[in-house]
Amino acid sequence: MPFAAKGHIVIDNMRVEFESGNTKTIAVDGVSLDVQPGEFVSIIGPSGCGKSTVLNVIAGFTQASSGKVEVDGKQVHEPGIERGVVFQQYSLFPWMSVRKNVEFGLKTQGMPASKRTTVARTFLGLAGLLAFENHFPDQLSGGMKQRVGIVRALVTSPQILLMDEPFGALDAQTRVVMQEILTNMWQRQRISVLFITHDIEEAIFLSDRVYVMTARPGRIKAELKIPLPRPRTAAMSASPEFLEIRQQLQNLIREESIKAMGTEIATGGMEGLSIQIGPNGPQGKM
Ligand SMILES: Nc1ncnc2c1ncn2[C@@H]1O[C@H](COP(=O)(O)OP(=O)(O)OP(=O)(O)O)[C@@H](O)[C@H]1O
Asked: Which end of the chain has the lower number of beta carbons within 10 A, N or C?
């Protein structure tokens, strides 16, 4: 697939510290990564390693303490319309209809009412949601709400889509459908996607490349290319290539999850929990 012209993310040697009261938390330290224009890249890693922090810095919601964070050659300081964001929580406006939710970003861009209705309806049609344009968010299933969230992020034609565990709250079947819808929309729009997930198979199915982060303070432990052809199909998940990549990722993440749990125990975060690291991973009892 030819790459898009824009949507290039570069992070170099980034550190993010949080201070609350007397406590300083180094969330990530020495993170370097890139997303090429039009590329689909995922980040996986143990809980608390700083995945959301990385995404929030690129989105402009959180400031890096040091290091380079550039989108198309410009240092990121604040949110921008060229970066759409989708969170696990659906974050739709409950008092607005589906169509009004989708039109919202177009309105803030100053698009006239009749045009934004046409654009919103076109996108809702692509996502199979046109019949629900006048529904309100609480009348939709979780999967539908998240589809609206994705449409809302894409309708303003961003060059980058930042997604923080967008399908984490969905059941397994809905998740598979959502992965296909996302892949279709991504291929149609040729945008860059940075996608955070805990789900190894989801990362392999969707991505051109996957970054694995270390336990906190997070940095990049490994980077794997996913050489599976596109379009990806469910049958590929039984292929030897898929299984080999899955095994590699499982091993990398398991090492870091064990380290992350060890740190929590050492710092008293899991008082009363006795835990042993056995050949099959951590085994504990309360
Ligand atoms: N605003 C904040 N203030 C203080 N500490 C924070 C803040 N945001 C994140 N942290 C801390 O930074 C570390 C990284 O958090 P982050 O949410 O980025 O991890 P994560 O990898 O996305 O976790 P998970 O997979 O569990 O969602 C954690 O120790 C977290 O407690």
From this structure: C
Least confident stretch, 47-51, 112-116, 176-180, 211-215: 176-180
Cβ of residue 25 lying under 6 Å from some atom of ligand 1: yes
CA of 247 to the centre of ligand 1 (A): 27
| pLDDT confidence tier of residue 200, bands split at 50, 70 and 90 | very high
H-run or E-run covering 177? helix 172-189
Q: Distance between CA atoms of 155 and 122, rounded to whole angstroms?
A: 9
185, 127 in Cβ contact below 8 A? Answer: yes
- ipTM for the complex shown: 0.97
CATH 3.40.50.300 domain span(s) along the chain: 9-82+158-285
Give the residue whose CA is nearest to atom 25 of ligand 1: 47
Choose the CATH number for 9-82+158-285 among 3.65.10.10, 3.40.50.300, 3.10.20.70, 3.30.1390.10. Answer: 3.40.50.300
Q: Which of 3-12, 53-62, 171-180, 256-265 has the lowest mean pLDDT?
A: 256-265
Q: Does residue 56 line the site of ligand 1, with CB under 6 A?
A: no
Nearest-CA residue for ligand 1 atom 1 is: 18
Looking from the CA of residue 16, the nearest atom of ligand 1 is 12
Q: Which atom of ligand 1 is nearest to the CA of 23?
A: 4
Burial (0-12, 13-18, 19+ Cβ within 10 Å), 119: middle
Query: Mapping DSSP to helix (H, G, I), strand (E, B) and coil, where does residue 8 land?
Result: coil
Q: Which of 47, 53, 197 to mutate to test the pocket of ligand 1 (most atoms within 8 A of CB)?
A: 53
Judged against a pLDDT cut of 60, whether residue 3 lies above it is answered with no
Does ligand 1 lie within 6 Å of residue 262's CB atom?
Answer: no
